[in-house]
Amino acid sequence: AKQQGRNTWQLHTTAMNQHAAERLLMENHLRKALERREFLVYYQPKIDLMTGDLVGMEALVRWNHSIWGLVSPAKFIPVAEDSGLIQPIGEWVLRTACDQTKRWQDAGLPPMRIAVNLSAHQVEQANLVETVQSILQETGLEPRYLELELTESILMQNTETVNMTLRRLRDMGISIAIDDFGTGYSSLSYLHRFPITCLKIDQSFVRRIEGNGDRTDGVIAKAVIALAHNLDLEVVAEGVEEKSQMQFLRDEGCSLAQGFLFSKPVPREEFEILLTKAGTT
Ligand code: C2E
Ligand code: CA
Ligand code: CA
Ligand code: CA
């Protein structure tokens, strides 16, 4: 039994070393990815459920590695966060998304708000407000066309500093959305404390709308919609894949949604076609 125990332990450490080695390898490649221009921004449409119109978009980063191909953000964002590389990468995404949004506006396409995801590291940086300010200045994008998405867990750390940062951003006219709302195991009291403008219903709650006849189907989605309405916040449903989910959300008064039912995140050129169509209807 002792022998077996040791083998298990060895197997375990080997797997751990392999995991650590893979992360280190990825980190080294991530370090060069910016100058090699391997990142892309994809755009996912935000839809008005009452009219079916395109009304906004979320920027989602993609890493196109020369050998590995498209690496999922679920894989490389955690590595970027642990290594601090999320700082320059996040700034690049923000600049690219703002710049692209302004270019579309200048081209006469219907002006829409762009939502950009922020990591904890970025929000905790002392100079986040200045960074955002100078990016808006450089690109010429008006602050009311920018929305920043952050998760509940970010609000729970360094509460006072984060609160002050968010107030300054909000005062500039930037919108603040809570991403993956309801998954952060936090208290709801922060909704009063922080200058939030939008709640995004996490995909896991949208998935449960299915209507398998279960009594609890859609209950959380419904509660988040009611909460948002009562607090006078915007509410966006994420990960809408089924018509039945869309109908349920619409009936409950959720007016905005994203999901594969409408469109997956698409490259710039493809999003431009959607924008052009939106401009002609
Ligand atoms: P998120 O911010 O919650 O983004 C939503 C994710 O759900 C995206 O995955 C999107 O492609 C996917 N999605 C959208 N609609 C559907 C649907 O109907 N069904 C399903 N199954 N999935 C859907 P993606 O692009 O792989 O990004 C994963 C996560 O990586 C994001 O989750 C976000 O936390 C992070 N991320 C992506 N881009 C950035 C970025 O620029 N900065 C930071 N800090 N994080 C980012
Ligand atoms: Ca998001
Ligand atoms: Ca989300
Ligand atoms: Ca997420």
UniProtKB/TrEMBL annotation:
What is the protein's given name? Diguanylate cyclase (GGDEF)-like protein
Tell me where the signal peptide lies: none
Superkingdom of the source? Bacteria
Full-protein positions shown: 515 to 795 of 801
| Residue span, EAL domain | 23-279
Q: Which residues form a coiled coil?
A: none
| Location of this chain's protein in the cell | Cell membrane
